Amino acid sequence: MKGPASTLRAELIGLYGVVERNVYLTRRYWVWEFAFFIWTIANTLTIVFIAKGVEASGVSIDVNRQATILLVGGVIWSYLGIIFEILTETVAWERWEGTIEYTFMAPLSRIVHLGGMGVFAIIYGVVRSALLFGVVAFFFNLTMPNADFLAALFVLAVASISFMGLGMMTAVLPLISPEKGAQLGFIAQGMLLVVSGIYYPVSVLPEPMQWLAKISPATYALEGIRDAILEGRGVSQMWGEIVPLFIIGIITIPLGMAIFDRGERYAKQHGKLKRSG
Amino acid sequence: MSRIEPRNLHLTQISPEAPAVEVRDLTKRFRKGKRIRRFGPRIMNTVLDRVTFTVERGECIAILGQNGSGKSTLVRLLSTLLINDGGSAHVFGFDVFTEPRNVRRLVNRVSVEASFFKKMSANENLSYAARFYGMRSEETKRAIPEILDRVGFPNARLNDSMEHLSRGMQQKVALARALLTSPVLLLLDEPTTGLDPRSKLEVQEFIAKVRFEHDATVILCTHDMNEAEKLADRIGILDEGVLLVLEPAEDLKRRYEADTLEAAFFAATGKSLEEDEAEVDDD
Predict the structure, then answer these.
(1) Which residues of B touch A101 (CB under 8 A)?
(2) Which helix (H) or strand (E) holds A111?
(3) What is the side-by-side order of every strand in the sheet holding B234-239?
(4) CB nearest to A268's CB, from B9, B13, B81
(5) What ipTM, to 2 d.p.?
(6) How far is it, in rounded angstroms, from Cα A237 to Cα A151?
(7) How far apart are CA B58 and CA B51, in angstroms?
(8) Separation between Cα atoms, residue B283 and residue B271, nearest integer Å
(9) pLDDT tens digits, B69-91
(10) Among partner residues A97, A269, A273, which is closest to B116 by beta-carbon distance?
(11) Is the pLDDT of residue B97 over 70?
(12) Distance between CA A164 and CA A72 in Å, rounded?
């Protein structure tokens, strides 16, 4: 075999290739991307309007603060959706196009293949989430005088490691069940967010769900980003969120890979890589 | 075109004594339907049954068989896309099932269906495939138009999305994709099925040319007797997962006392290839 440097170079080119392909597809489907973005804005507006609704019902609240809390929840929901969707497409889209066998017989390691999908998902997700945040904040004329957006971005970046690991676990589902696997990814996303305090504090959850919240990376991501935007806390003041996110990330990436590898072996054993439909 | 080494693997690192392909008692079974009883054993369908053969370097063999005979399963096993249930397979001395990454660097494939990202252009699809084999942008910018030109694909259509190309053109792009990575073993799974006569002839001529110019070993699975006779050094008959015979066309005809390959196939299997020629192989 060639040396490690040459192998690493080939792997990096492969990773670039995965990102490049996703850029091509995003460009070709830009009208659809725009339509989905409009849908996400509508969805997030619906959620943020709840703060206005509560005020209208006579309850005295800080609407600006509550609306920002809900906005962060809505944006993280959307971001997580993008990460899961793109990673699930690793298998689902290629299976549908019939290219999956060509991709899986190429000499690229699976970690780099999935890593390339993850890198694109993070870049695309950050851009779309930032746009979403800006559009909705502008719509409600929200003010965030203390916001430390760089710190919020840093928390999101660290959280993305865990999100990628979880996405790898769901990416394998279309290999096991070509018909329903992709939909199961949405269930996993929903399960993760119900325990993570997306629109309400984790403290309102029953005890067993609060325990689940402790191992959900979304919990720490939401807490950290809200603290950075509302309280202006910097990175050095958020180790309580960043350290758990690192630990969960270190666990979920190899776990996600191991699960994907097992799923791939299952698919190769039972002939499920082949295109159907 | 000059001889190109397979991506990321020095030819000197391939065992000089090893044949291109060595398959011994290769067996593959798939689940068939549900269990008869709850918790009872599953019914298994043996798709390949102790298949044994060797292909020498630079040789072209054709495998003839009806739909469901196991041709595509054989190609998928050699492409590292399936895990065997018995036996072994080596490609240039590398074990297909324990050293898949080494095998992947040496092999590429063209199947009956030219599968691509349909919204992407030929150029984009080929770039994507090439990156997986370590080809940089500078290399693909030069190599893609060159290889497409060789397969007779008009350069003016390089940036048209695949969905706007005819079936014949798509198959030429599929051939270009396989050759772009300079494989030393080319697995062709009915590459001309469904093509119009002119495209079929062009693809066949290109396969013959590539074999000699490129010094590639070729395994061709086909329904087409003429294609097999024209391109292959030896012809194998695969029937219900069993490789009945693999020898030169003339020996095959002599063995079955037949004037034509069709008659030899019928004598060997009791079946005719024409029966399912119109169908798409889905074994």
Answers:
(1) 76, 79, 81, 109, 111, 115
(2) helix A110-139
(3) B107-110, B185-189, B217-222, B60-64, B234-239, B242-247
(4) B81
(5) 0.87
(6) 10
(7) 21
(8) 17
(9) 999 999 999 999 999 999 999 99
(10) A97
(11) yes
(12) 20
